[in-house]
Amino acid sequence: MLEVNELSVRLGGSHILQGVSFTVPPTGVTALLGRNGVGKTTTLRAILGEVPATGSIEFDGAPALGRPTHRLVRAGLGYVPEDRCVFAGLTVAENLRLAVRDKNPDFRTVHELFPELRQRAAQRAGTLSGGQQQMLALARVLLNPQRLLLIDEPTKGLAPAVVTAVTQALARMADRVPMLLVEQNLAVVRRLARDAVVLAAGRVAWHGPAAELLGDPALTRDLLGVGSTASRHPARPANAASSGETVGSGDAGSSTDAAGRRA
Ligand SMILES: Nc1ncnc2c1ncn2[C@@H]1O[C@H](COP(=O)(O)OP(=O)(O)OP(=O)(O)O)[C@@H](O)[C@H]1O
User: Fold this and answer.
1) Could you tell me which residues are beta bridge partners of residue 30?
2) What residue ranges are annotated as transmembrane (predicted)?
3) Residue 121 Cα, ligand 1 centroid: separation in angstroms?
4) Pocket of ligand 1, candidates 36, 38, 150: which has the most ligand atoms within 8 Å of its Cβ, to mutate?
């Protein structure tokens, strides 16, 4: 669905992405991981054409780099940014109506996945809780036909129970449309992602099955600065997404001699 090759981005005099290459398959969730400031959001923004980049990107079989953002969005590239960007002064219903691009917006799916938004249709979006605002941001992209969703840190700053609810909504969305998901909560990644791409020092440091990464505590510690509990809890329940294993900050180490998948 998405092929990123040798993506390079310079911002403010820094070479943020230095030849990033990875693919996103046409089904399932691919997690884009890495320590704070490594360039995950920049990668999403480069795919969307929001920052100048070199390299090549193919989206749904067509070249994407250099195509204007609005064309990519019309072609079915949906984006839910980290700050959610709901219109605080407008109601839930107005926020949803403003997002409609398609002749036949899919309110049925939105109401099925997010019944609470229907009950709160007349409430101003700025008065919703963080989790409800996240649901609204996710609902807005679902109104239009999508080929791929780029979702940036959807559980950031949410209370544990709300993280579980948002994770469940994302799991149901992922049944319908593939996702490239930036997420720092590894329990959420474990619940949702089939594949994982780890960025470090401007490049892809690891690319492979998410379970393989999260099942290797030494590798997760080395690449992400966190000890994964996967091996101790192989059959964690769905609501385990609420427990906190959050990716750390600083440069990822590169000393692990991990087999095979290290880029
Ligand atoms: N417009 C810009 N001008 C200059 N530097 C920028 C700009 N946008 C991002 N950066 C820098 O690029 C680096 C990568 O930022 P980015 O937001 O992509 O990281 P991230 O991996 O998403 O981080 P986090 O996990 O903290 O959200 C950071 O050092 C950031 O300060």
Assistant:
1) 180, 195
2) none
3) 35
4) 38
Separation CA 177–CA 128 (nearest Å):
26
Question: What one-letter code names the amino acid at 205?
Answer: A
The neighbour count for residue 128, using CB atoms within 10 Å, is 21
Q: Could you tell me the pTM of the whole model?
A: 0.88
Of 119 and 85, which is predicted with more confidence?
A: 119
- HEC letters along 109-167: HHHHHCHHHHHCCCCEHHHCCHHHHHHHHHHHHHCCCCCEEEEECCCCCCCHHHHHHHH
Q: Give yes or no for residue 157 CB within 6 A of ligand 1.
A: no
Q: Could you give the domains of the chain?
A: 2-76+148-242 (3.40.50.300), 84-145 (no CATH)
Quickly state the pLDDT bin for 83 (edges 50, 70, 90). Answer: confident
Query: Which stretch of 38-52, 93-107, 186-200 has the lowest confidence by average pLDDT?
Result: 93-107
256 pLDDT exceeds 80? no
